Amino acid sequence: MASAAINNLATAPISSEQEVVAGGTPPLITARSSIDDWTSTDKNISYEDLQLDALDYDNKQTLILASDILYEPSSMDSLATKLRNLLHPTDGGYVLIMDPEKERTSGCRSALVESVKEIGGQVAIVPMPQPKNNGMAMNKSMLVESDVDIDGNLAKTVLIVVQFNGA
Question: Among 78, 39, 38, 82, which residue's Cα sits nearest to residue 64?
């Protein structure tokens, strides 16, 4: 959320339907977040909680951006179900997940791929090119420890593209 705010995107919590109606329609692009434990049934956010239908757009496909969510292979069935349930129920959509090329926990990525396919989704994994500085000076103070490999180079990442077509 901090990155969204720094880049002048509107930000808002995922809130109840009454709050959105009372507060009006959110801007076209709004970054919203919420803490959600996909392994627990106590708090489960779904597509309806996102209230995207209130925006009344022709294209109902949902796009979700995520990173740093693959930690435990045993939770990948729950995560795959959570991702499917966050997408539009009939039009589906995409989830773009950034993940380190070197997995934090071995087998997590393959467990996610298997779980997504088991419930009707598709997955593609794309290695990402190393970023260029595009004229902007990048120094180590701009990076956090997790961004740098043991050799001091910027960590390589992959993009995991998950797609569900909907009902």
Answer: 82
